[in-house]
Amino acid sequence: MTMKQKKDAPSRLAPAFLNGMCVGRPLVIPFVTAGFPDKWSTPDVVEAMCVAGADMVEIGIPFSDPLADGPTIQHASEVALEGGMTVAGVLEIVESVRMRDDTRDLPIVLMGYFNPLLAYGLESFLDDAKAAGVDGLIIPDVPPEEGREYRAACVERDLSATFLVAPNAPDERIRIVDQFSTHFSYCVTVTGVTGARNEVQVRTLEFLRRMRSLALKPFVVGFGIKEAAHVLELGPHADGVVVGSALIDALSQGKEPATVAAELIAPLRAAAERIASSRE
Amino acid sequence: MTEQPKASPDAHGRFGAFGGRFVPETLMPALFELELAHADAMQDQAFRQELDGLLCDFAGRPTPLYEAPRLAADLGGPRVWLKREDLLHTGAHKINNTIGQALLARRMGKHRVIAETGAGQHGVATATVAARFGLDCTVYMGEEDIQRQRLNVFRMRLLGAEVVPVSSGSRTLKDATNEAIRHWVTNVETTFYILGSVVGPHPYPAMVRDFQSVIGREVREQLAAKGEAPPSLLIACVGGGSNAMGLFADWLDDDVEMIGVEAAGYGLDSGEHAASLCQGQVGVLHGARSYLLQTDDGQVKLAHSISAGLDYPGVGPQHAQLRDSGRVHYTAVTDAEAVEALQLLSGREGIIPALESAHAIAELYKRARAGELPGDARIVVCLSGRGDKDVEAMADYLRNHPNEDIGARP
Asked: Which CATH class name applies to A27-278?
């Protein structure tokens, strides 16, 4: 690969969130597991999502023991690992995504568990991720208390470090996570693991309102979001909505990435646009 | 010996470079709550009295410190005492910890408990205290372990617990733990997670150690009561490491050698073992930084041991610290060596140990045969569990390895 990103390349995240806020709609953020359904298709999947209206993409680094994930993403991780996906392989995917016209400037964050990154060597991983064109990281098993060095290493490279926060968090905890996240925080809709769900709980909305009143930085919401109705309900209370398991489910049915993107991402984007127009 | 490690973790739950709380954020409020509740309970005289009372009358403490003369003769003449945790209610040391955690659960107003289990001993001990305290109980157990330990599955069900088979990943203890943690994340506000070993996020490694440390304290009192000098060697098997920490904790500042024996499975060179301290690299699993069996790419490897209770790719963070500081020496014995030791102890002393505990016995035989066991050694072995649960696995093993059946000798 020749198109290495400059080490001082500015993050694509801040402009994306700023743009979302200006037009008054949440960003649409698909999550895909790198190497699912196979090693070669992930760049196509990312491109298809982008073309269908994704504002940003989360790429999952598969791990053998995904504690925070439900059966769908567990399965995707297993398939990806069996197919030979590695941490280095994930970075190659990002490089190849950056070579494509449609996705050259797409904000990309990696989501993965801590151990594979430690095994790679955290500092070298962050260097290589930056060089490959990654904009930031979400590590679900690193809470702020364990994330000081990792966060500092990200800041040094202008990579974002996002910490998660759940509905059972006291106000003080929300403030800590908001402060610790460099660009944006990640609110999980429920106390639970990832996976598509049917209904939005009243408690989730209360949580997001609380988050809005306490957080100084943008935040996205994820876990259980699968359809336009969810975006319409949650989207007005967050700066981005993440859809993951529903997407993996659709991909595992053997559909083409473009079809999945058209069926799943386009309607979510349309729902996000409706939020914007209803605010005008 | 290098610098003596501090016995307790620091405020962040770290034992030197190890430990911590690497968990999904949802669990952080629960871990803070647990840490406070545990500290508060241990200050409360009434709590301690109730705990001591239950350990005595319900679990059967103190357990005997039995001097094993024929085993000693086999080993060439040292003195050997067996700390008989196998005689506890439910058949292993696990109940020391589950009584403590169940009392905490009740104190915190949680009516549901969950647990992971490998051999089923911790599952049975959890189901037992859940029955005793009227708590709902769900136990996560790998499908492969359910096959290996059918007796314990039936015991848990008799005790009123729901046993949930775990079919993901290795289908053993590692994935049962993943599933228990996922369930805890989902039901964190109503559920107490009774973790069975000195692993997991802070405060579990310290809390489980504290509940198990009664083992080592009793050894001290019992030796003194017999008018015996302190031991020169403490030895225990190590999977997650709770019985070993329970034996060692009270002795870390004493001048006594300590050995933790891991499972070498088919052999350390075979790649199929559970010896994370002997052969692993530092990593993060199940909420703590410790030694871990993993690939170069940081994926957790499957462990192997004939003993389901040792079949775990990680180990408690304090053991990692004790390894690096040199305070405790860690070694490993194979399936075959453990099977032989199980048979030897059965024939010599009339005690059928659990396959887990047989690993500690096997290490003694190994050292004796290599001439590395001084004749004046004074050895305390933690006999962490009884072997009833392993009878079927032993029968299978000996059917497949007829040459290793040494039979009971007179």
From this structure: alpha beta
